[in-house]
């Protein structure tokens, strides 16, 4: 089983909240938000949180798959390139837990195997067997190949297509079972600008949309990060999902119930198929862990203060920000007082 702990990312360390492409080339460019500052080469993050993701995805799938997944003008060429890439990469990055021979995808953790036709996007045969996490998927039946592979991956999956004649791009497929307060159905068939226009502060990024789409399809793979503060660690925040404390009108800031939610987004292009794969992996860290020292607390406070009123509202922080900032400032002050007294201080207490 996957035993490694989730990587801890702190994208707020710049002290600024920015909505930008922020692309890092996989395998070569260091990721400044990692604790070790190393570069990354993987697309899929398979760690000890894997069972949690599978359980959450299965729950969303059973509740209403049609609210989370769909297609819009997906070509057979892009479907084939993307599905084969997903299957091949999952197998390569799983330390032998998953295998793919070009026809059959097998997951030794979930206890199922499927014959897939990547070009048609179909599940030709599905078999089940005893495995450590087989009970998690025992109650779900994949409807197609993208659905099957999406249930095997922690990441959500999206396919971006571009017409080689007109240059028009659009979201051609989505399998997004852990959305952060947005509805995948609202994005299907829409271009990069339309998809991102609801994101507060996205204007400068949208102005470079043609270059960004070109880069993601021909110059990657890349990884980028988005982040926010949530009052809860649930993965599925579809607008139609059962409500929880996050963004509820009655919710007040509680440091013991607050989490830093970071999305690691990887982009892999398929130039010959005129498209790209976009993966989204949410991470939820207890806020006390995310701000483990005074520098972290100071940087997060600065980043939050740099938000525009529209961004504060978009991120669901309007009612939480004053108390959140006061808590961060208190941790900085407390650490400073402890250092002045010459005492060792456990900042995570």
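^ structure tokens above, recovered residues below v
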């Amino acid at each position: 089983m996957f035993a490694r702990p989730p990587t801890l990312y702190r994208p707020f360390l710049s002290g600024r909240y920015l909505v930008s492409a922020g692309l890092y080339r996989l395998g070569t460019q260091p990721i400044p938000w990692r604790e070790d500052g190393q570069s990354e080469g993987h697309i899929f993050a398979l760690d000890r949180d894997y069972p949690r993701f599978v359980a959450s995805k299965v729950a969303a799938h059973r509740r209403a798959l049609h609210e989370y997944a769909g297609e819009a003008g997906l070509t057979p060429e892009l479907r084939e390139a993307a599905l084969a890439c997903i299957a091949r990469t999952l197998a390569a990055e799983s330390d032998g837990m998953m295998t793919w021979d070009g026809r059959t995808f097998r997951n030794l953790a979930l206890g199922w195997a499927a014959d897939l036709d990547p070009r048609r996007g179909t599940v030709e045969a599905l078999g089940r067997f005893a495995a450590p996490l087989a009970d998690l998927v025992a109650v779900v039946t994949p409807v197609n190949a993208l659905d099957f592979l999406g249930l095997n991956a922690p990441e959500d999956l999206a396919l971006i297509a571009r017409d080689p004649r007109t240059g028009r791009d659009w979201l051609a497929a989505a399998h997004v079972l852990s959305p952060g307060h947005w509805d995948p159905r609202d994005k299907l068939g829409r271009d990069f600008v339309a998809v991102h226009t609801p994101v507060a502060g996205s204007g400068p990024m949208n102005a470079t949309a043609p270059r960004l789409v070109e880069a993601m399809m021909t110059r990657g793979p890349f990884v980028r990060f988005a982040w926010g503060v949530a009052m809860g660690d649930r993965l599925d925040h579809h607008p139609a999902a059962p409500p929880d404390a996050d963004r509820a009108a009655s919710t007040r800031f509680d440091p013991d119930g607050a989490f830093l939610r970071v999305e690691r987004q990887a982009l892999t292009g398929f130039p010959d198929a005129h498209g790209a794969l976009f993966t989204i992996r949410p991470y939820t860290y207890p806020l006390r862990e995310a701000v483990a020292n005074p520098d972290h607390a100071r940087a997060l406070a600065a980043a939050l203060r740099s938000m525009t009123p529209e961004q504060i509202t978009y991120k669901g922080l309007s009612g939480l920000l004053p108390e959140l900032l006061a808590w961060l400032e208190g941790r900085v002050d407390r650490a400073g007082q402890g250092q002045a007294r010459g005492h060792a201080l456990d900042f995570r207490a």
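The first helix runs from residue 50 to 64.
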